[in-house]
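Comment thread on ticket #2218

A.B. wrote:
> Attaching the input chain for the structure job we discussed in standup.
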Amino acid sequence: MNETIQRSVAESIELKKSFFAANEAKIVEVAKAICAALEGGNKLLLYGNGGSAADAQHIAAEFIGRFQRERRPLPAIALTTDTSVLTSLSNDYGYSEIFTRQLRALGRAGDVSVAISTSGNSPNVTQAIPIAREMGLVTVGLTGDDGGVLGAQVQYNLCVPHKSAARVQEIHIMIGHILCELVDKHMKGL
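C.D. wrote:
> Ran it. Output below, let me know if you need it in another format.
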């Protein structure tokens, strides 16, 4: 058991070091896009499945509440939280439509779409991106492995090059926390 712990921790640390060294500039670009959207009166729309759904909710909560300091609430919606919407859309249109329908209803040009998928191949996530782009949303993907279909669709792909969903998700939530911190520090009018 000790060896498993040591291996997991070492693997996570090394992956974080290499990922953030390679993607620092892209994360800054995403933070600037989020700041511009929020300063322009727009919002974040976040979504994914399973652990990625939990990450979407977690990141949205950090923007609406506070991250590290008191500030005004920032508009962010996790499209993974309304069970009535999710179940009715799944029943009436199919599970692959749960995010596309919500984006059409809630998204506006200038909003930021944050799609989270460890594989980059979740059909309900990948089907939402063409809709988001068509509507004029900034598209961000948090992906893993080789980025999958999602990585090729978004304007900003933050791809963690690893096959383990656990390692990928550890970095996805860290990306979310870093974006919150950058927005807190650099957004005008907070």
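A.B. wrote:
> Thanks. Noting for the ticket: The mean pLDDT is 96.
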